[in-house]
Amino acid sequence: MITLHGYWRSTASYRVRIALGLKNIDYRHATHDLRTGEQKTDAYLALSPQGLVPTLEEDGAVISQSLAIMEWLDERWPKRPLLPRDPDDRAVVRSMAQIVACDIHPLNNLRVLTALREELNAREDQVQNWIGRWIQEGFDALEILVRRHSGLYSFGDDPSLADCCLIPQIYAANRFSVPLDAYPKLVEIADRANLLEGFSRAAPERQPDSPKEFRRPRKPRS
Amino acid sequence: MITLHGYWRSTASYRVRIALGLKNIDYRHATHDLRTGEQKTDAYLALSPQGLVPTLEEDGAVISQSLAIMEWLDERWPKRPLLPRDPDDRAVVRSMAQIVACDIHPLNNLRVLTALREELNAREDQVQNWIGRWIQEGFDALEILVRRHSGLYSFGDDPSLADCCLIPQIYAANRFSVPLDAYPKLVEIADRANLLEGFSRAAPERQPDSPKEFRRPRKPRS
């Protein structure tokens, strides 16, 4: 049985929940409240020395970093692949995913925003500009790449690693009120993806550790 | 023939140069001076919409993002692999690489330091603390993981994707005078890797676009 160490609002954890859902893999949640520093306990640090989420455990294997976890899932459970077969196509999907995972999200996660506030005395309007700026720079490029390569999803007609990263980043943009008018293709694809159970069940508000005031009930199955 | 769009001092370009060198793949340099914004010309943006380096071109394929480029090289030129064969091992190597590529480097590259200075009015001592902080947080974890899994190199006895990311990050740490005393294993492995031609020829000071005052001649072959 897989255990996913995560947090409802961590967008990196959200990516992995989508990948697990798309592949229909059962797993157990282990939650670590990032606001109270639960990811820095000795027990968790012994497992995952960065003290970040997500980390995946399965039968002795311990894997951190969301992209590494999703690649591992794709190698171990090759059905419903997250990457196309052709190396050139795989490279495009990986580079889309990494625009989000390397050039947007690392600049905007909680530990970085806390450093801006506490060490650089950034005001809230400056933090808000900082967040919006990196989302926009990344999405400017991603909108172009997705227009070049999309079908129903970011690359072709099947959900991929790119969508596992895009949809949580759209969620974060909405959470921080970053305008998305300039990215109609990204929004269209996110809206379509969110109709799939693999994406909708991974949403932060559907997670067992989400606070009641955010909780969204699962839609009844029709 | 492969063209690598890069810049001598870009550590993400440096990673790809190492991967190309380890696989003994010939390539042509196309340099874009990041200090003067040469990576934002219309011609380069048409090729690579993020306007960042590195981007690799080969026979119609255009790939951005250093991790995506290195995975593509490994799939297209499988000799001298950059990843082990077992999925659990591959995941460990990828997560080591991503500690550098997702959690250290994106916070310290030129566009981010410029934003700290210009938009948050950060003083130089604050910028220096910012740089050191993310290197130390990442290396604290990487030192532990590398001790668990290393042989001669970061994972086992062969250079891997993890070393392609580690060695340029050690270079950056030295450049910014970040102390490395707490990371003897990482330094030991970097010193060993730098004895290999694949690593030494990729060094910033050996690149044709490095300014003369930094240039280091190639060692004569013995």
From TrEMBL, chains A, B:
The GST C-terminal domain covers which part of the protein? Answer: 86-221
Which Pfam families does the entry link to? GST_N_2
Q: Which GO terms describe its cellular component?
A: cytoplasm
The enzyme's E.C. designation: 5.2.1.2
Q: Which InterPro entries match?
A: Glutathione-S-Trfase_C-like, Glutathione-S-Trfase_C_sf, Glutathione_S-Trfase, Glutathione_S-Trfase_N, GST_Zeta, GST_Zeta_C, GST_Zeta_N, Thioredoxin-like_sf
Q: Which residues are in the GST N-terminal domain?
A: 1-81
Basic and acidic residues composition-biased segments: 203-214
Q: Where is this region: Disordered?
A: 200-222
- Span of the signal peptide: none
MF terms (GO), sorted A to Z: glutathione transferase activity; maleylacetoacetate isomerase activity
Tell me the keywords, alphabetical order.
Isomerase
* Biological process (GO), any one: L-phenylalanine catabolic process
Main enzyme class: isomerase
Show the NCBIfam families listed in the entry: maiA
UniProt record similarity statement: Belongs to the GST superfamily. Zeta family.
Please report the name of this protein according to its UniProt entry: Maleylacetoacetate isomerase
Tell me what organism the protein belongs to: Sphingobium nicotianae
